[in-house]
Amino acid sequence: MKKDERLSGYYDEKVETLPWEEKKHFLENHLQRAVMTAFQHAPAMREKFKSAGVSPTDIRSLEDLQALAITPKAQMRQLQHSSPPFGGFLGVELDKLRRIYSSPGAIFDPEGHQADYWRLQGVFFNTGFRPGDRVLNTFSYHLTPGGLMCDEALAGIGCTVVPGGVGNTETQAQLMAELQLTGYVGVPSFLQAIIERAEQNGKDFRRDFNLEIAVTAGEMLTDASRRRLEEDFGILVRQFLATADVGAIAYECGEKNGMHFADYRVIEVVDPETGKQLEAGQVGEIVVTLLENPVYPLIRFGTGDLSYYEDEPCPCGRTSPRLMKLVGRVDQVTKVRGMFIHPSQVEEVVAAFSEIQAAQAVVEREQDRDKLTFCAVLDQKSSQETLLSPLQERIRTVLKLRADVAFVQASDLREPEKRILDLRKWD
Ligand SMILES: [Zn+2]
């Protein structure tokens, strides 16, 4: 199948392309029902409204959600433990569940009977799978929902699934070749491993395989890894974001410029300290509210993942904003002048310059203002003058903050293992 055919069309054109103002109304209509369901049927959610002094009818707009606290994923284990098995978040009786999973961190995740429970069908169609694809699904089928949630969604859009699960590189490489599989779902590094194994065994990927599309999640898809798979092996590569708690969160369209918010959930990017919604471009925690899910009516579930979004129109015609990239986890952020920065962002700046051997972002407090200094250790032969302005530019792009640049010796770095050194004192 041609790449253009895979990347044209919509799973649900009407919903995906609704002009943003109308889409917002659409989401808010669903949201009003979702908060009512949560309040009426999930005791833990009812508590959340009560402690905020808010009634479900107060939540009418997406902005109104800010009145409610965030339920962090990090607390889920403890909440479930004190009120087993689902911490009071379940909206139906236990015997109405189809499956119960156990995810890393010993968190239980419920699944209901409704079709496309995890809302991944649209994700797989929009990332490029089409009816008739034969897909190797390498997410785990044991205990965690990853394998089954992808399996059912692929089948739901007319694909044939080979339930590969995790590991067994040799067997999976063989299956991929012998069954002439057209699709792959899993982490990007495992696809690399399968290809390498096949080539070690004397196969020629372009000749012996028929893999046209790979849709990845669960691991950072680096530009280098995507380029290799796309250019060297001719595979169309897209990625999506989902979790075991909420299912689909976001997915890439044909334009490959960020991941559109998935439908039937409200996605917010918020300040993890205050819970306030952030503007486009600002790094914060991804928070999810499920719509049309009476089984697990989660309102403001904090995923712990940090990202930022853009809401410029996307040429694909879909109107939902896009998560640009995952920046890291919420427990590792440092707030500087109201913006969150994460160690991985410092590493990203460094990665753009082969001349930089080490770097550290140092945060200090001067005259009641945060001062950020990007300390860089250069190799011997590089010139500070040539590097200064491209480095400053890169820092602004990646950290979204202005910083002073200081070229230092490796021995000048204090606690050099830290990418961010916070020297501020708060009395
Ligand atoms: Zn798009």
Brief descriptors of the model:
2 domains, binds zinc ion, nine-stranded mixed sheet, GMP Synthetase, Chain A, domain 3, about 425 residues, Rossmann fold, globular, alpha/beta, about 30% helix, 13 helices, five-stranded mixed sheet
Protein architecture, described:
The protein has helices at residues 3-7, 13-17, 20-41, 43-52, 73-82, 121-126, 146-156, 169-178, 188-200, 205-208, 223-232, 343-351, 384-399; strands spanning 71-72, 99-103, 107-111, 134-137, 160-163, 183-186, 213-216, 236-243, 247-252, 259-261, 265-270, 284-290, 301-307, 309-310, 322-323, 328-329, 334-336, 339-341, 356-366, 369-378, 404-407, 420-422. With 427 residues, the protein is of the alpha/beta class. The chain folds into 2 domains: 1-332, Rossmann fold (3-Layer(aba) Sandwich), CATH 3.40.50.12780; 334-422, GMP Synthetase, Chain A, domain 3 (2-Layer Sandwich). The strands form 5 sheets. A 9-stranded mixed beta sheet has the order 5-4-6-7-8-9-10-15-14, sandwiched between helices. The longest helix is centred in the N-terminal third of the chain and has 22 residues, at 20-41. The site of zinc ion (ZN) has 6 residues, from loops.
**Structure classification:** alpha/beta
Morphology: globular
CATH C-level of the largest domain: Alpha Beta
Number of helices: 13
CATH topology of the largest domain: Rossmann fold
Largest sheet: 9 strands, mixed
Mean of all residue-level pLDDT scores: 95
Ions, cofactors and other ligands present here are:
zinc ion
Radius of gyration: 23 Å
Termini, distance in Å? Answer: 64 Å
CATH homologous superfamily (4th level) name of the largest domain: ANL, N-terminal domain
Low-confidence stretches: none
